[in-house]
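Subject: Sanity check before I submit

Could someone independently write out the structure tokens for this chain? I want to compare against mine line by line before I put it in a report. The sequence has 250 residues.
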Amino acid sequence: MAPSTTVPTVADIEVPETLLKKRKQNEKAREERLAAAVAARKISKAKRKVIFKRAESYVKEYLSKEKEEIRLKRAARTSGDFYVPAEPKVYFVVRIRGINEIAPKPRKILQLLRLLQINNGVFVKVTKATQQMLRLIEPYITYGEPNIKSVRELIYKRGYGKINKQRIPLTNNAIIEESLSKYEILSIEDLVHEIATAGPNFKQVSNFLWPFKLSNPTGGWRTRKFKHFVQGGDFGDRETNINKLIRQMN
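---
Independent answer below. Compare away.
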């Protein structure tokens, strides 16, 4: 006969109530996490579909606009007329001069436009008021009409958002959605479209974008930087030539 032992077996030992409760809680939390992850995946998949569809529609819109402009130019040429392009809706403004000897009024306008440093750039909607402001600060800035390519390159390469007064790089669409979802802006392509077409939420998008910090242009500025662009300098309105400058500074 085997000697009886006082050491209890595993089956005899009861699991403490607290440990059982903890196990149940952990199991429940794990199930909730898995369910939340599945739900999040579904939502992100649906969002991706919406974003892709929007991006496709934007590309179609840009192409049709480009084709229409070419058609109008050809029609004008064949009839012996001049084609006058539409007035620009958006300017890209770059500060090219420092803080020395600036009168109070231009200084205040530069602050309003958030152009606080040399080579800072911002998008500005073209209105009568903004045109008058740009005229007053013309010796300190250069500006022009950016095309879609320039807007996209600037936002993708040097785009930073203002979130809780902090400068946050736009590394994914979630950052944009968090701040601008109430304006139906979910992705970087929505940002580009809103800026390029001067959409109804241009003000909110422009305020969300931190002023662009650009480099000095490749090859440097012109010799007479503080003369007007049409006189061989750099400041003032350079119309579509701003796109060339953006390529050099981006």
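---
OP: Matches mine. For the report I'm noting this point. Residues 120 and 213 are 5 Å apart (CA to CA).
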